[in-house]
Design brief:
The chain is of the alpha+beta class. It has a single domain (3-100), classed as GIY-YIG endonuclease, CATH 3.40.1440. The chain has 3 helices and 4 strands. The chain has helices spanning 35-44, 67-78, 89-100, and strands spanning 3-4, 16-22, 25-32, 56-61. It has a 4-stranded antiparallel beta sheet, covered by helices on one side. A hairpin with a 2-residue loop joins strand 2 (16-22) and strand 3.
């Protein structure tokens, strides 16, 4: 899986599953069709979400139909601290159902 360590050199990747890492530990798993914008949002924060602390990004380009399942599977594998879905019981059950369908 490719790694981006220089955060000023993003590659135009769409659609993809991505992993924010801090010191080699996965701190967030997400998906996007607009990689540059999403990385900017994570680094700078938004009105409802503070900036995330990370020093590298890994990504995997994949079919849009697989993104939800792959994201759910990886969230459950890594239990990243910034993924809010893992803290909500209803969301956690949905993630488990999606992850069960992932063939990756």
């Amino acid at each position: 899986m490719p790694v981006i360590e220089d955060m000023t050199r993003f590659e135009p990747i769409e659609p993809c599953l991505y992993f924010l890492l801090d010191g080699g530990q996965v701190v967030y798993v997400g998906q996007t069709r607009s990689f540059h914008l999403r990385m900017y949002q994570h680094k700078n924060g938004e009105a409802s979400t503070p900036a995330k602390v990370f020093n590298s990004v890994r990504y995997e380009v994949m079919d849009r139909n697989e993104l939800d399942k792959a994201e759910a599977w990886h969230m459950l594998q890594h239990m990243p601290k910034y993924n809010r879905q893992l803290k909500l019981k209803g969301q956690l059950n949905m993630l488990k159902k999606l992850a069960a369908q992932y063939q990756g």
